[in-house]
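Internal tracking record. Fields below are filled automatically when a chain is submitted to the structure queue. Please do not edit lines marked as system-generated. If the sequence contains nonstandard residues, flag them in the REMARKS field before resubmitting.
Queue: standard
Priority: normal
Entity type: single polypeptide chain
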Amino acid sequence: MPKITVTIAILFLFSFSAFSQKTNLSGVLTDGSEKKPIYNSVVALLTPKDSILYKFTRSDKEGKFNLKNVIAGNYILMTAHSQYADYVDAITVEEGEKKMGTIALMSKINALREVIIKTGSIRIKGDTTSYRASDFKVDANANVEELLKKLPGIQVDKNGVIKAMGETVEKVLVDGEEFFGDDPGMAVKNLRADAVKEVQVFDKKSDQAEFTGIDDGDRKKTINLKLKEDKKKGYFGKIDAANGPLTSIDSRYNINSMLSSFKGKRKLSAFLLNGNTGQDGLGWQDSEKFGGREDNVSMSMDDDGNVNYEWTGGNTDDEPYVDTQNGFIKNTNAGLQYSNKWNDKQTLNLAPKYNKQIYTNNNSRITQTQVGETQLNENKSTISNVNRSNFKLNATYDVKLDSVNSIKFTAKTNFYSTDSDEFTNGQTTGDNGLLKNKQQKTFTTKSDKESLFASILYKHKFAKARRTFSVNSSWNTLNTNANNFLKSSNESYDGGVFSSKDDVDQNKIGEKTNQNLALNVAYTEPIGKKFALQFAHQITYNSGESNYLTYDYSDVTGKYDLVVNSLSNEFKQTITTNKPNIKLSYNSKKINYSFGSGFGFTSFDLQDQTLNKEYKRNYTNFFPAANFSYKYKSNSNLRINYQGATKQPTIDQLQPLRNNQDFFNQIIGNPDLKQSFTNSVSIFSSSYSILTESHFYQSISLRTTSNLISYNKDIDPESAKTITKPINTNGNFSGNFYFGYGFKIKKLDLNINLNPSVSYNKSVLSINNIINDSKTLISGFSMYLNKSKEKKYDISLSNNFSNNRNTTSLNDEIKSFNTNNFSLDVGVYFREKWKLSTDYNLFSRQKTVDFQTNLTNQLWNARLQRTFKSDEFTAYIMVRDILNQNIGIKRYVYENTVSEEQNDRLKRYAMIGFTWNFKNKGETAKK
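SYSTEM-GENERATED OUTPUT FOLLOWS
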């Protein structure tokens, strides 16, 4: 009887095996340093659930191994050899032959501690930190943004800004490719977290640097989302719709939908977002491109301890500034993403996007400005209405012409239209309370902008290894047409008594074109196994034309037909730079570095066509650069970067045109501006321990700028009228230190992250042509704790404290205030299908000498949901701002100014919603 039972069992197993999907698993083992085959190494497959041995074999004399008749599924691949470190990798075996390729093993003699373990939650390889997504638990239907919040070293603030190891993430890729252009928010807010296999964080080099292997200093903090293989077949997506339960009282609504389809190497995604709760609009990157805020900012901190930037002068094309975290927004956002690859030689990526926003906001600001012994107090309120839209198209086409030649075409377009009106009511008093001036103003804007970009990158590899040649050429242009109307009533007072009045009724027409051509040629020559030289030459040509005409209203004709010569100007600029460059690089397994320098020969040709004046000047600059990286042990590295770079003044800063949009705060350009030069050094170190599950990273950056383009403010303390003009200053310096330490208390299953930070900024300011210093020290400490149990609970606790301290050489007074944000986020599951989640924030702002109000408010949100049909459907009800205390307050301390502003905020509302998360049924069945 036992024999019969055994026989039946064997036949059953045989029949099961015969009907199961089987495949062959093969690969080659080599020595990581000597590249020779490894003989007689054990290669085993283990089951991941209980680590039981499933199959094993040994490598032959050529290092090859072949595991036959492997049933499709998930396994742990492990190698074992007496002279080499173990290699462990989590793999998925699918139907059809699977080739592992070459696996490089590490000698135990050379590196006893460098055991390659790829099954840890985090691993560091070179400059890349990788997180295995499945080890960080989120809700079944959570998006990638919720996943990122769980990853050590990554922070996502309430505005959606992502920071990795203290640096702002500028790009989010999906499987190494751009997803809906260069907007980081699109992928993290709309892709499902359960579709992601791995999250990689690294500093993305330029295409040319990646090809040559020699760092050019052009880096962007980047996140790459590697999708699971089963998510690259068929389709998946979601539809989420929510609405206020009482439309007569609460008319809030959101409709979010996303669909992704995969067929072979073709990927197609589409999304549509529509709502009025302030969801995704144009991000910081877009406002930077079109708002002209890049050169005219001063660092400060908001009420929650976050670093902000305050505009301090210059001409911003009269474009209204929209802060999507304040005010009320109706938003429509739609887009397509198409990518495909043919024969592994041609790759096409297309991403058209459309965005429309209707925005309203009430802003009130109190500003205190110190001028010598006098303090000016400005109280201003502004009502804004903005209707804007833009259409963007990003396209790349990459072709491998043959094994040694490739060419990449990139094109980007952006068509942007704005209609807005602003009504401002303000007054300024002295420190004795006597009125200085009073203003009422209406400003309407109609502007159209067109941004075009195109580039071609040609790459060639010679027969000799690491000998390369590349040519990168680019062209971009920005065209602006604006038609604005300014009506203002401006009253001046002497000793608190009315003295004069100036009424302005003008039509302002502006046309501006700016284009840039660049050509960069690079050749690399190896000089040994580890050294290489790069010879490069860059030519840039920048041309700009700015025509502004201002017309007064005529009572006689009833039209705007009287030209105001003092407010009209036609200006042209041409800036040409030649920059030869030589660089030496060294590349080894643990140490990589490069250093070299370029010489820049720059010529300015500026023409004031209105005044018939020409300004010419020439500059010679030295552009040193150095990069060093050291992988001092497994999962640990150190990077040091230094770069010297120039920055040209913009045409707005150069054009001697007076901007009288604010009668008592006028701005004028300066054609005598020089280019600035910045020296910057950054040091970054990171390490991760797999055994203790702890991570540790530090970042230090120092920056000094000569001939910095800042501003002189001529302030009349009697009339409180200010004329701002860009000038060059020296002695500007900034430094930042960011520290992160995360660890896990295993007995409590508690994750802890600690993040102290310090930033210091010394800026040189000029008040009434007298040079002064402004020093700002911002220090902070944040703590984050998380404990979770799948389908049971998820609890997060955090606290973010910061101190802003500012001093100027104008007086001995120290401006200092503290802010603190305590946050609690709790999710509790009931019977696996029900979940109650709530988050609570307590914002505290210290009262100061200037602002005697100790502002404290609480923000409490809650959501109850129920999932159906294997989490495919979700019904929910949510309430935002239960206590009705959401306020938009910011405080600034910068240079000789202290300011506090308040904005409209969307307060308490409730919504009932339904979500359908769908995926390919055929793929689910196969799985």
